[in-house]
Amino acid sequence: MKSLLASFLLVFSVSAIAQQLPVFPHAEGAPYYYFLCNATGWSLNEQTQLQCDDAQCISQYLDYEVKETWMVRDRDSCKLLKTAQLGQWGGDSQVIGAYVDGVSDEARQGPMQVPGVARLFGRDEIRIQYPTVGHYRIWLTRARSAFSIQPLISE
Questions:
Q1: Which of 122, 134, 44 is nearest to 83 (CA)?
Q2: Could you say which DSSP state residue 114 is in?
């Protein structure tokens, strides 16, 4: 399990460069993912929808901003929503939880520390501990059933 996350970290570094990434059209049959939280919003829209990073939509990302200091101090509660319908909850919609790999069982249920990597697991909310207000990127890879969140840095 540690090797999975180690390889994921090599692909997705601790900080992401704040650059415009290519956005591919959504691949037919690929699920839509929404990152719903206080930092992004709670509606299914462009501010919460992850964008495809490749033609098959295997990896998806969303850039967003943490603006409020209470989100740093008190943590943000988030949900990752998977749905087959663009902008709509449906019978097949699923809230996906996460746990941090390579830590104790008690820590797995604790907040995800940013920068960090977590595996997709269960259906719980995801608590995020940001280091500071600023810009961040969530990067989801379905091939590894994991996601990462990193601060964005300017070039």
A1: 44
A2: S
